[in-house]
UniProtKB/TrEMBL annotation, chain A:
PANTHER family: FRUCTOSE-BISPHOSPHATE ALDOLASE (PTHR11627). One of its GO terms (molecular function) is fructose-bisphosphate aldolase activity. It comes from Volvox carteri f. nagariensis. Pfam families: Glycolytic. This is Fructose-bisphosphate aldolase. The keyword Isomerase does not apply. CDD domains: FBP_aldolase_I_a. It is an enzyme of class 4 (lyase). GO terms for biological process: glycolytic process. Keywords: Glycolysis, Lyase, Schiff base. Its EC number is 4.1.2.13. Belongs to the class I fructose-bisphosphate aldolase family.
From TrEMBL, chain B:
GO terms for cellular component: chloroplast. One of its GO terms (biological process) is glycolytic process. The keyword Plastid applies. It comes from Volvox carteri f. nagariensis. This is fructose-bisphosphate aldolase. It comes from the Eukaryota. One of its GO terms (molecular function) is fructose-bisphosphate aldolase activity. PANTHER family: FRUCTOSE-BISPHOSPHATE ALDOLASE. Keywords: Chloroplast, Glycolysis, Lyase, Plastid, Schiff base.
Length: 393, 377
């Protein structure tokens, strides 16, 4: 027997209203409506441009400290000039713009010039590559001894975004890292804290005219955890992230997502591209609404060949995906390029050549058209430790 | 017993994750069947006939054509609907009220069997209705979680393969945070329970047409309630490949002076769906909520002018039944004509699902509005 509920007319309700009801907060839906923001249309266009089919992002935003480690690995000193030379090599690679739609930079790089005096941002734009800027200021340890982290960078972010936009940046990036594969990881604290940082960062970027790349990285780490476990935690993390993006009124047509592919732990057997694709696509289908124009996977330690083959498999698995399934690769585009250069002028052209070949391979994979052979076959995983303690100088 | 095992499997999964043994992500016994059922209902050119009016509400319908509200009359009316020849071309599922699930045709066939013969999946309303929600501004919450697992198991045995639960959100009354959260919470818990019992849950947080708000305000509220609902469903480990949604379209309120035509309704509604609905969900079956038969069809047609990542279709009650009732008038000799009227409306909405609807084929009756202020279901 169902009890009937008569919805009272507003007049009757006002008479019966108690003090509690009168002070009832409305639903927390922001009035950040695409019709109000002056940047909304531009953000959507920028995001759509970067996410266009067959193109991806070159992630070259390593902090000075991390760049230093890379340079040192090929015997090059970590000086500002050497860092500048290295990025000049990347951005002036002829024809790179056919395959790359955006390049993420560290703050120092955004303001640097090539040897002939041209601003890096202008060189990139001339190639049809949109300049982007890393705006987080690094990882900090969370309390507890599980090695979990949060990401810093909200202080003064609005002002920084304004300045970066003035300098020519069109998009921004913030990397949040969630660790799995150890007892107690990820904790609820870590998930909520990282989701919150991403959502606030995204909101501030949009308000100040930059497309935010939202990067919730469920990181590839030690352990023999299965690909299903990665998928399980990835879904949990993305669910929180999406909820907070909604809560903060972030316009989804004006963001890009930079997630991890679903991979088993480092001590488990490497998964085939087909398994990676099946599980990763399933996770994205469950978590990411179609309004997001592009999903730019991070390479996160995959070898250069693995990163391309997995990306091709993703596009085989979901050729009609509502978002672009593409890349935002750092190590998977730079590792062999760097080794080829090794700081020597005489290797400049050869290094640029291999970079463009790698970009082309991944561009083809993003369009579902990579047939091989891979320019750098058979490489191993390219791992780096999590660096905490704030952005390096 | 199965339920206890399922719970401990779930508990094991969480404990295992914490202690680093292998993780069972989801041990759903019915997972494959749920996906199959959801995709059958969300098939091209087809939608749902909602005929789950409670006895009291059904009484209102019968009353409007001068027919007495008896069990036999309700039975006869529902028989008219589900034995319409050829209806299965356009209707993939029919939602029943509990009484109807156990009724039979005049010649002794169970309704669920008659429906299956027509290629229609039987569904069942499982909520126990709306009641006042404490400390809110005259808002309501939806009851039905108590004993829901057992009811669902019984309904599955009786032949139902999907379920439906209708919560409401009222813009003129708020919506308050309390009502908002309870709506999402109830739907998420119901969905998890239904899936565990083999029933595809239709998830329906109806943002009521009542009010003088504009279409932007409706969009805002709809985006908020769907964000909340998906979050709670994810937390409750609902499998999105095995659910169907039943949203209201994004429209201005019934008393808003600025009206919106099909193109605008489609633009706003698709924007809302694209922002809030993961592509894993196979089907979105819109409610008509007081729109006229014609409006409901035109709006659905406008939404299907280009491919969508999910099946975008209908789950209409009043917008399929209005003309049928008026044609029937409770008289046996009118049954063929009434069934023809149902077939016509079902085909119109099927065409709309395919984006091919032609309004030139309609009569005057179809344009009659069916909005009722403060409508009680």
């Amino acid at each position: 027997m169902q009890t009937k509920m008569q919805l009272r007319s507003p007049r009757a309700a006002s008479c019966a209203r108690t003090l509690r009801s009168r002070t009832q907060p409305k639903v927390m839906c922001r009035a950040f409506n695409s019709m109000e923001s002056p940047y909304a249309e531009e953000l959507k266009k920028t995001a759509a441009y970067i996410a266009q089919k067959g193109k991806g992002i070159l992630a070259s935003d390593e902090s000075n400290a991390t760049t230093g480690k890379r340079l040192q690995s090929v015997g090059v000193d970590n000086t500002e000039d050497n860092r500048r030379d290295w990025r000049e090599l990347l951005y002036t690679a002829p024809g790179l713009g056919q395959y790359i739609s955006g390049a993420i930079m560290f703050e120092e790089t955004l303001y640097q010039k090539a040897r002939d005096g041209r601003q890096f941002v202008d060189i990139l734009l001339a190639q049809g590559i949109y300049p982007g800027i890393k705006v987080d200021t690094g990882l900090q340890m969370l309390p507890g001894d599980k090695g979990e982290t949060t990401t810093q960078g909200l202080d003064n972010l609005a002002d920084r975004c304004k300045a970066y936009r003035k300098q020519g940046a069109k998009f921004a990036k913030w990397r949040a890292v969630v660790k799995i594969g150890e007892a107690g990881c990820p904790s609820t604290t870590a998930i909520l804290e990282n989701a919150h940082g991403l959502a606030r960062y995204a909101q501030i970027c949009q308000e100040n005219g930059l497309v935010p790349i939202v990067e919730p990285e469920v990181t590839l780490g030690p352990g023999d955890y299965s690909i299903e476990e990665t998928a399980f935690w990835s879904e949990r993390v993305y669910s929180h992230v999406m909820r907070l993006l909604n809560e903060y009124g972030v316009v989804l047509e004006g963001i890009l997502l930079k997630p991890n592919m679903c991979l088993p732990g480092l001590d488990a057997p490497v998964a085939s591209p087909q398994d990676v694709a099946r599980v990763t696509v399933r996770t994205m289908m469950r978590s990411i609404p179609p309004a997001v124009p592009g999903i730019h996977f991070l390479s996160g330690g995959m070898s250069e060949e693995e990163a391309t083959l997995n990306l091709q498999a993703l596009n085989d698995e979901a050729p009609n995906a509502p978002w672009a399934l593409t890349f935002s690769y750092g190590r998977a585009l730079q590792a062999t390029t760097l080794k080829t250069w090794a700081g020597k002028e005489s290797n400049w052209t050869a290094a640029q050549d291999i970079l463009v070949k790698l970009a082309k391979a991944n561009s083809e994979a993003a369009a579902g058209k990579f047939k091989g052979p891979h320019p750098v076959p058979g490489g191993g995983r390219i791992l780096q430790a999590l660096r905490t303690g704030g952005a390096g100088k | 017993m199965a339920l206890i095992m399922k719970q401990s499997a779930g508990l094991k999964a969480v404990t295992a994750a914490r202690s680093r043994k292998s993780v069972v992500v989801r041990a759903g016994k019915y997972d494959e069947e749920l996906i199959k059922t959801a995709n059958t209902i969300a098939s091209k050119g087809r939608g749902i006939l909602a005929m789950d009016e409670s006895n009291a509400t059904c009484g209102k319908r019968l009353d409007s054509i001068g027919v007495e509200n008896t069990e036999e009359n309700r039975r006869a009316y529902r028989e008219l609907l589900c034995t319409t020849p050829g209806i299965g071309q356009y209707i993939s599922g029919a939602i029943l009220f509990e009484e109807t699930l156990y009724q039979s045709t005049k010649d002794g066939r169970k309704f669920v069997d008659a429906m299956k013969e027509q290629n229609i999946v039987p569904g069942i309303k499982v909520d126990k209705g709306l009641v006042p929600l404490a400390n809110t501004n005259g808002e309501s919450w939806c009851m039905g979680l108590d004993g829901l697992d057992k009811r669902c198991a019984e309904y599955y045995k009786a032949g139902a393969r999907f379920a439906k639960w209708r919560s409401v959100v009222s813009i003129p009354h708020g919506p308050s945070l309390i009502a908002h959260r309870d709506c999402a919470y109830g739907l998420a818990r119901y969905a998890a329970i239904a899936q565990n019992a083999g029933l595809v849950p239709i998830v329906e947080p109806e943002v009521l047409l009542d009010g003088d708000h504009d279409i932007d305000r409706c969009l805002e509220v709809q985006e908020a309630i769907w964000a909340e609902t998906f979050k709670y469903m994810a937390d409750n480990k609902v499998m999105f490949e095995g659910i169907l949604l039943k949203p209201a379209m994004v429209t201005p309120g019934a008393d808003c002076p600025n009206r919106a035509g099909p193109a605008k309704v489609a633009e706003y509604t698709l924007k809302m769906l694209r922002r809030r609905v993961p592509p894993a969900v196979p089907g979105i079956m819109f409610l008509s909520g007081g729109q006229s038969e014609l409006e409901s069809t035109l709006n659905l047609n406008a939404m299907n002018q280009s491919p969508n990542p999910w099946h975008v279709s209908f789950s209409y009650a009043r917008a399929l039944q209005n003309t049928v009732l008026k044609t029937w008038q409770g008289k046996a000799e009118n049954v063929p004509a009434a069934q023809a009227a149902l077939l016509k409306r079902a085909k119109a909405n099927s065409d709309a699902q395919l984006g091919k609807y032609d309004p030139a084929t309609e009569g005057k009756e179809a344009a009659q509005g069916m909005y009722e202020k403060g409508y009680v279901y």
